[in-house]
Amino acid sequence: MTPVVAVVGPAQPSDPAVLSAAREVGAGLAAAGCTIVTGGLGGVMAAAAEGAHDAGGFVVGVLPGEDPAAANEHVDLPVPTGLGEGRNLLIIRLAQVVVAVGGSWGTLSEVALARRRGTPVVSLLGWHIVGPEAGDDVIVVHDAASAVQTAVALLEVR
Hints:
The chain is of the alpha/beta class. The protein has helices at about 15-30, 45-55, 85-95, 105-115, 145-155, and strands spanning about 5-10, 35-40, 60-65, 75-80, 95-100, 120-125, 140.
């Protein structure tokens, strides 16, 4: 069975390095044989999808609306849900590992949902979570190659 990794992050990141990192993460995960699932729209979602698509990978886009045409051009399988931000739960339920690139409120919700269900999270250029269980399987990395390497290692453990 093909491993599935969610790549999540802001739709409109202010730092261009976030988009570059997301593209590298998508390409690296695709090269490692992973299927990529994203929210299917712009920003980090589109950059990760582009990287994966260009590397020959398969990309699922779980869309907030009902129109499959809303997906970015690099999504191979658009899944229109009509659930708005509620689609974040579907993204997380599909994934065996989550890679969060950058940070936004939506990204934070996906990280929280992943951790709530026991799915490990790799965080690159994102927020640092402080709390009683802040370090609980949220692994902070500092570059795209480390994000890919860590995600693949987590897949092997699971």
